[in-house]
Write a structure and sequence with these properties.
Rossmann fold; globular; binds CO-5-methoxybenzimidazolylcobamide; 5 strands; alpha/beta; Methyltransferase, Methionine Synthase (B12-binding Domains), Chain A, domain 1; five-stranded parallel sheet
């Protein structure tokens, strides 16, 4: 079995103690960081499908998420990009009521590698907190809001509208997450939308240049 297949299985079964070594072995065997990352993302889709089918429950989703995060820790240093190109600070967080952070963390990693300094507010971030953080930090050029649940799409809307009403100037807003569409992003007044972490980094650069 390939090393990448091992990584996938360890994420799906939530083996967080073994995953770091398996990711390292996959890298040593010539696997590319982006390829290993994609394999782990695919595993989380399998986990989601099993949850939808009623084959697993929230605790299993949680341990799979923990394993994925440990695997990403091994990849993260390898994804560092051109940090000399300072594009300002990006405030990022998952919106109020939403505890999903893996996608947000990947987006953060990719935006950082595009040349931003990141301020990560974590999960369950109230709309006003994005504004506070943008005011507290130097040179905030971008606010990135993630939402993973259809039930937290209104919180995404509230976050964008609160930011837009706050009078912050020179600061763009990008949104994304599985239930978010480009149409929804435009409807709620976001400046940008991205479907995945790679395109979030491309869009982030485009928005501030
Ligand atoms: Co949750 N969960 N979960 N969950 N969970 C989903 C999202 C779900 C699709 C599972 C399913 O039913 N198949 C479903 C949502 C259904 C819906 O609303 N449409 C769901 C549900 C229902 C729930 C609960 C309500 C379950 C319950 O309690 N009954 C509950 C809600 C808790 C809450 O948030 N209030 C819940 C809880 C959890 C855990 C805490 C157990 C855990 C999260 C742990 C963690 O994140 N630390 C969890 C997990 C792991 C999942 C799945 C299995 C995996 C999510 C993930 O990490 N994916 C997920 C199923 C799935 O995704 N297929 C599911 C991998 C990640 C890389 O992808 O997050 O999509 P993703 O991020 C992508 C893109 O979306 C995009 O780029 C990322 C990377 O390419 N993106 C952006 C994300 N943010 C972006 C921001 C951008 C741009 C792009 O710009 C700013």
């Amino acid at each position: 079995m390939s090393k990448i297949q091992d990584v996938k299985e360890l994420v799906e079964t939530g083996k967080s103690k073994m995953i770091g070594l398996a990711v390292q072995e996959a890298l040593d065997a010539g696997g590319q960081p982006a390829e290993i990352l994609q394999a782990m993302v695919d595993s989380m889709s399998v986990v989601g499908d099993k949850f939808s089918a009623g084959d697993i429950f929230v605790p299993e989703m949680l341990i799979a998420a923990k394993a994925m995060s440990k695997g990403v820790d091994v990849i993260r240093p390898l994804m560092a990009g051109d940090t000399s190109a300072s594009l300002g600070t990006c405030v990022i967080g998952t919106v109020a009521g939403d505890l999903h952070d893996i996608g947000k963390n990947l987006v953060s990693m990719m935006i950082e590698s595009a040349g931003f300094t990141m301020v990560d507010l974590g999960v369950d971030v109230p709309a006003a907190r994005f504004v506070e953080a943008a005011k507290e930090n130097e040179k905030v050029t971008l606010i990135a809001c993630s939402g993973l649940l259809t039930t937290t799409m209104p919180a995404l809307k509230e976050a964008v509208q609160t930011i837009k009403a706050s009078g912050l100037t020179g600061c763009k807003v990008i949104v994304g997450g599985a239930p978010v569409t480009p149409e929804f992003a435009a409807e709620i007044g976001a400046d940008g939308y991205a479907a995945d972490a790679g395109s979030a980094a491309v869009k982030a650069k485009e928005l501030v240049r």
